[in-house]
Design brief:
about 170 residues; alpha+beta; Aminopeptidase; two-stranded antiparallel sheet; 9 strands; about 30% helix; globular
Length: about 170
């Protein structure tokens, strides 16, 4: 089940990745029996991009739906064209994972994490995101198989406890 994180789960996610968010931070997670198995957070929104932070403590329990929804939110629901990741250069596991998911390295900032440790800037552009194609293919497959849908071929926005997950610009008062 993919849900927006409540404040307690959000604090756990943020403390685990040692991150201090801005007021625009939003996060979703995948839950299985027993708790949170993966989370993705979005912060530092610009008109065309957002930074993404992924935490997956239980990789064998993570579903493909988590990735589809994780990329659908910034690209399709929020209309961004670019997702950015900043990763410490000495975190080989995270760099390898990000590459497998589809991120491309675009820049390295020397000593930006710590002396001797670079920050690797990675990006994924909407047009390169294979998770969106899979998301759209799933909708088409469900339509062919006669599953209920929106009738228009468009996916409905995720709902959290019966309420639609809103875009960050809709949250500005």
């Amino acid at each position: 089940m993919i849900l927006q994180l409540n404040p307690d789960w959000e604090r756990l996610f943020l403390s685990t990745i040692s991150y201090s968010p801005t007021s625009g931070f939003k996060a979703i997670g995948q839950f299985c029996t027993g708790g949170l198995v993966a989370a993705v957070g979005y912060d530092h929104w610009t008109p065309n991009s957002v930074q993404m932070h992924i935490w997956i403590p239980y990789p064998k329990l993570v579903s493909k739906k988590f990735f589809r929804e994780g990329f659908r939110y910034p690209f399709e629901m929020c209309g961004r064209g670019l997702v950015i990741g900043l990763t410490p250069g000495n975190n080989a596991a995270a760099l390898s994972f990000n590459k497998r998911v589809g991120f491309k390295e675009v820049y390295r900032m020397s000593d930006a994490w710590d002396v001797g440790i670079d920050v690797v800037v990675q990006e994924m552009r909407r047009e390169d995101c294979r998770w969106l194609r899979r998301s759209n293919e799933l909708v088409q497959q469900e339509a062919k198989e006669g599953h209920q849908g929106t009738g228009s071929g468009r996916r409905q926005a995720p709902q959290i406890n019966g309420r639609q997950l809103r875009r960050p610009d809709e949250l500005v008062q």
